[in-house]
Each structure stands twice: as C-alpha cells, then as structure tokens.
C-alpha cells in the first residue's frame, strides 16, 4: 500500500499531527469502529488520567488495525472525539508520539458525551 500526502498552500496548514489529505492505491479499505480507553483484560475504562485513557484508546485501535493485517502506517484517516476540546493539545501530543509520519488525514469533533463515560474516542480508516 502506498500513501500520497496531499498538501496545498491554498488551504490552511495542519495545526497538529495530521495531513490535509491522503490518497492511496490500496486494494482494501478497513473501517474501524471507534475505540475508547477500555482495558481489554478487564473491560473497565481507564480512569487514572485523561492521558492514560487516550493512550489506551490508541492501543486498542492499534490492536484492531493489526488484526486487520495493517500497521499504524496503514491509517489514512482518523476521527477523534473529545468531550472537552480543551484537551485537544494533549491528544495532539500523544498522537504525535504514537502515530508514525507521514500523518494520516484527521478530523476532531467535540461531543457532549461518549459511551461508558469515556472522555475520548478514536476511529480509523486503514488502507491495505
């Protein structure tokens, strides 16, 4: 699978770890359901800190990506959901350490609530 990063100066530059757009010649697309910060072994939501909940959600997403036959580099689009957009910079910092460059395209959405009281959810589109 190859990824072509699309960038134009005629649109605003990315304000975080993402690309304006990504094109792919993939033969298979995988659409992941949203992942929250559940610990797989216990089924309990990480509540120790927002940062740990975000890390766990990304780890859960990674496990599903890998189960599909992909890697984190196979992600072409992420959608992030936050119950508090004041945590946007925290998520950017964590994402920048967990997702390899070139970064996928991304949308971030502020929501009133998430399942099971989660503060963060991530979903992905993977190109294989």
Describe the secondary structure blueprint for this structure.
Elements: E1 3-6, E2 21-24, E3 29-31, E4 38-39, E5 44-45, H1 50-67, E6 75-82, H2 88-98, E7 105-110, E8 120-127
Organism: Orrella daihaiensis
Protein name: RidA family protein
Family: Belongs to the RutC family.
What's the quick description here?
The protein is an alpha+beta fold and 128 residues long. The protein is built from two helices and eight strands; from the N terminus they run βββββαβαββ. It has one domain (3-127): 60s Ribosomal Protein L30, Chain: A, CATH 3.30.1330.40.
Description:
By secondary structure, this protein is of the alpha+beta class. The chain has a single domain (3-127), classed as 60s Ribosomal Protein L30, Chain: A. It is built from two helices and eight strands; from the N terminus they run βββββαβαββ. A four-stranded mixed β-sheet has the order 3-8-6-7, with helices on one face. Strands 1-2 form a two-stranded antiparallel sheet. It has a two-stranded antiparallel sheet with strand order 4-5. The mean pLDDT is 93.
**Assigned CATH superfamily:** RutC-like
Kindly state the mean pLDDT as a whole number?
93
- Architecture in CATH? 2-Layer Sandwich
Distance between the termini: 6 Å
CATH topology: 60s Ribosomal Protein L30, Chain: A
Biggest sheet details: 4 strands, mixed
Summed up, the domain count is: 1
Query: What percent of residues are in strands?
Result: 25-35%
Keyphrases for this structure?
alpha+beta; single chain; RutC-like_sf; four-stranded mixed beta sheet; 60s Ribosomal Protein L30, Chain: A; 2 helices; two-stranded antiparallel ribbon; YjgF/YER057c/UK114; RidA family protein; 128 residues; 8 strands; RidA
């Amino acid at each position: 699978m190859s990824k072509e990063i699309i960038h134009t100066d005629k649109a605003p530059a990315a304000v975080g770890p993402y690309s304006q757009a990504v094109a792919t010649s993939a033969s298979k697309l995988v659409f992941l359901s949203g992942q929250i910060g559940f610990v797989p072994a216990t089924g309990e939501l990480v509540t120790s800190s927002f940062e740990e909940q975000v890390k766990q959600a990304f780890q859960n997403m990674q496990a599903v990506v890998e189960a599909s036959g992909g890697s984190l580099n196979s992600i072409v689009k992420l959608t992030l959901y936050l119950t508090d957009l004041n945590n946007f910079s925290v998520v950017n910092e964590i994402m920048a350490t967990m997702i390899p460059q070139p970064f996928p395209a991304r949308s971030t959405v502020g929501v009133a609530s998430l399942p099971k009281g989660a503060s963060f959810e991530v979903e992905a589109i993977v190109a294989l």
